[in-house]
Write a structure and sequence with these properties.
- By secondary structure, the chain is of the alpha/beta class.
- It has a domain at 56-171 and 188-242: 3-Layer(aba) Sandwich (Rossmann fold), CATH 3.40.50.150.
- The protein contains nine helices and eleven strands.
- The chain has helices at residues 3-12, 19-27, 46-50, 55-63, 77-84, 96-104, 140-150, 193-202, 236-242, and strands at 33-36, 41-43, 68-71, 89-93, 109-111, 124-129, 151-161, 167-175, 181-191, 206-213, 216-222.
- The strands form two sheets. It has a seven-stranded mixed β-sheet with strand order 5-4-3-6-7-11-10, sandwiched between helices.
- Helix 5 (77-84) links the parallel strand 3 and strand 4.
- Helix 2 (19-27) packs parallel to helix 6 (96-104).
- The protein is globular and about 45 Å long.
- The two termini are 33 Å apart.
- The model is unreliable at 1-7, 227-232 and 240-257 (pLDDT under 50).
């Protein structure tokens, strides 16, 4: 693991030990917030995450190409909808509760950080970063570089951006119904559409589309990595074989109770 991954990985896994996050996913409702070190609360829409894919979500999924990797899949509404359509799709999340819920909906999910080794690296056709997940690790350009390595040549990234035209970094903690913060502060980012497009251009991405739907904002970016003659698209068998146990806490899916 290189130095960049070492510095980003602990923040990316911060949700793994978050009791309030796990409790909210199990119950299907909030309140749940990210609390910044300056005291400001950023609300998290747990009820929408735990529901079925809504009309805005379906617009996103209609744009997906080929095999899809959902980074930070949460309780799995995107994964479940794509699986129901017969698509090759894998969700990853560091939270056991998130993976369990995704599996319960009939989707494939793996408990792992985006900065750890993943199945099908360099062969995914589409990567999703929904529900603010462009903020993972507090370093959008670093996350864009990682996603570029996951995608097949010319692959598509669809990211949901902040509602405001912002580009900010903060240290945050997860806060649930009790109002008590859980765990140590970790790095998070909030990025609006103009800022994300700027970061993407600097990292070699080509903007493919921008749109607003239901007061939510999205950006589609096209990767520019050159093709490899040995690359093959990920498939269900490849995903399944990658989940055989080597380290149950990181490499294997969580089996629902």
């Amino acid at each position: 693991m290189d130095a960049g991954r070492r510095s980003t990985l602990p923040a990316a896994r911060a949700w793994e030990t978050s009791g309030p996050y796990a409790a909210a996913l199990r119950s299907g409702h909030g309140p749940l917030f990210l609390r910044r070190t300056d005291g400001r609360l950023l609300p998290l829409d747990v009820e929408r995450w735990c529901g079925r894919a809504d009309a805005v979500d379906l617009e996103v999924l209609d744009r997906c190409e080929g095999a899809v990797l959902d980074v930070g899949c949460g309780p799995g509404r995107f994964v479940a909808e794509l699986a129901a359509r017969g698509r090759t799709v894998l969700g990853i999340d560091v939270s056991e509760a998130a993976v369990t819920r995704t599996l319960g909906l009939g989707g494939q999910s793996l408990r792992r950080s985006v900065f750890e080794p993943l199945p099908g690296e360099g062969r995914w056709d589409t990567v999703l970063l929904m529900d603010g997940n462009i903020g993972i690790g507090g370093d959008p350009r670093g996350l864009l570089r990682r996603v570029a390595a996951l995608l097949a040549p010319g692959g598509l990234l669809i990211a949901e951006t902040a509602g405001d035209d912002i580009d900010e970094r903060a240290r945050v903690q997860v806060v649930g119904v009790t109002g008590r913060a859980a765990g140590h502060p970790f790095a998070w980012a909030r990025v609006g559409t103009p800022a994300l497009v700027g970061h993407a251009r600097c990292a070699g991405w080509r903007p493919a589309a921008q749109w607003t739907s239901g007061e939510r904002r999205f950006v589609a970016l096209r990767g520019s990595r050159s093709a490899s003659s040995s690359a093959e698209p990920p498939n269900s068998a490849a995903v399944t074989s990658s989940q055989r146990v080597r380290n149950p806490s990181a490499d294997s899916p969580v089996t629902p109770a």
